[in-house]
């Protein structure tokens, strides 16, 4: 899988995840459980990953939704 987004903002991650699932794009959010290690401070970013074949479509979808600032 390829990282397309890295952010600490749980709302942006949820929004991106919902958009991609609705579009039929397989998505995985990595590092969600790192809050246990960091003490729930939200310091460590979560990574949004998609399959290489879906990368271009996922990036376009997120740009069109207005959250392109979060793209890696």
Textual characterization of the structure:
- This protein has helices at 10-22, 35-38, 55-64, and strands spanning 2-7, 27-30, 46-50.
- With 72 residues, it is an alpha+beta fold.
- The chain has one domain (2-70): UreE, C-terminal domain (Alpha-Beta Plaits), CATH 3.30.70.790.
- It has a three-stranded antiparallel β-sheet, covered by helices on one side.
- The longest helix has 13 residues, at 10-22.
- The model has no long low-confidence stretch (mean pLDDT 88).
List the topology elements:
Blueprint lengths: L1 E6 L2 H13 L4 E4 L4 H4 L7 E5 L4 H10 L8
Compact overview of the structure:
The protein is α+β, with helices and mostly antiparallel strands. It contains three helices and three strands.
Q: Biggest sheet, strands in spatial order?
A: 1-3-2
The average pLDDT value, as a whole number, equals 88
Structural class: alpha+beta
Largest sheet: 3 strands, antiparallel
The CATH topology, please? Answer: Alpha-Beta Plaits
Please tell me the total number of domains: 1
How many DSSP helices? 3
Distance between the termini: 14 Å
Q: In one word, what is the shape?
A: globular
Number of beta strands:
3
| CA gyration radius, whole angstroms | 12 Å
Low-pLDDT windows of residues: none
| β-strand amount | 15-25%
Name of the CATH superfamily: UreE, C-terminal domain
User: Could you spell the SSE succession in H and E letters?
Assistant: EHEHEH
**DSSP helix fraction:** 25-40%
Top CATH class: Alpha Beta
Just name the CATH architecture. 2-Layer Sandwich
């Amino acid at each position: 899988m390829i990282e397309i987004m890295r952010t600490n903002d749980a709302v942006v991650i949820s929004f991106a995840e919902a958009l991609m699932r609705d579009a039929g794009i397989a998505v995985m959010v990595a590092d969600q459980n790192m809050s246990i290690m960091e003490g729930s401070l939200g310091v460590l970013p979560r990574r949004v990953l998609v399959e290489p074949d879906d990368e271009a479509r996922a990036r376009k979808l997120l740009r069109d939704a207005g959250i392109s600032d979060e793209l890696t």
